[in-house]
Amino acid sequence: MPEKSGRLILRPHHTLCLQFFAGRGYSGEFVQNMFHIRQMLVEKPKRIILLHSGADDICAACPNNRSGRCRTQQKVDRYDEKCRRACDFSPEQLLPWEEANRRVRERILGRPGVRNRICSDCLWNSLCQQQDVENSVENV
User: Fold this and answer.
1) DSSP-derived 3-state class of residue 6
2) Distance CA 97, CA 31 (A)
3) In what helix (H) or strand (E) does residue 48 lie, and over which residues does it extend?
4) DSSP label at 4?
5) Domain spans, the chain
6) What's the whole-model pTM score?
7) pLDDT digits (tens, 9 = 90+) for 91-112
8) How far apart are CA 58 and CA 35, in angstroms?
């Protein structure tokens, strides 16, 4: 997993994706990388991340990564921008994972319909919807 200056580099929308990761992905290498990143952040919530709207440490193992550009670049750029605005992230912002995680939970997941407005056309949306339903049933 590539990291620059010891910091974890994440696209803004990947702060949201990490909330729903359930061991599925584009390839075995991608799943293993995503699992490793998520586990590291769970174990080290104070880890500093760099929010970067471009290929990040998750993209590094994605088969859709074409020399640093996503095969669906316009779509992921849109997700980044919507997530960035919803969470009040600044471009190229450095912050602890626990702060980014808190913002995603409060400002996206804690507000009905916001996640769907960000990424309803995502390939993995049905997995996130299923987890949304399961979480809402658990909280009743």
Assistant:
1) coil
2) 20
3) strand 48-51
4) B
5) 8-138
6) 0.88
7) 999 999 999 999 999 999 999 8
8) 10
